[in-house]
Amino acid sequence: MSNLAHEDREKEKKKRKMMLIVLTFVLIIAAFASIGAYRNHQERVAVEQKKKVEQKYKENLSSAYDQMVAAGSMMEDIINGYTEVWHAAIWNDGATIDGQSYTDFNMALAAQMASYDTNGDLATVEATMISLDQTMDDLKNPPAKFKGEYAVALDAYTAVKDMNTYVNPSGSYQTYSQSASEKDNELASKLNSLEVRID
Predict the structure, then answer these.
(1) What are 38-46's contacts with CB under 8 Å, separation 24+?
(2) d(Cα 190, Cα 86) in Å, to the nearest integer?
């Protein structure tokens, strides 16, 4: 009888050992499955985060482009106003600004600048440039996918800043109008390059 009891105990021990091995094996598999599921979840979160960052960057690029176009257009109008007034004061009978007639080109340019200041054109250009500066700060450190676009945007931004220097006329009529025209063409070219990259 003791032999039979001993065999039953041994069988019970082996059964428990086997159950313990199976349970350990199941727990190991469950742990690996949980780790795998967690890693997959983390990868999905990272991919979604990357997509959000890239989408936001693309929106900021489009915003920068729109601001550059707006600033460039306003600057072009202001510069054209100066050159027209300057030309009229030198070669015509004078220039008329806000109902006043000027035959001295320095007085005419000063009056035109005062008019732009009064009607808010200069302030609008300045506000647009401040906004553009902030947007360009937001574009620093582009995602790898947008490094080329950032370089093109930076070129266009530099051209806008260069054009902005002509909002305050200086030099002679010929050098000012010729140089401003060259900068305007350069800006248009760089904006076209940027538009192609962000579409």
Answers:
(1) none
(2) 28
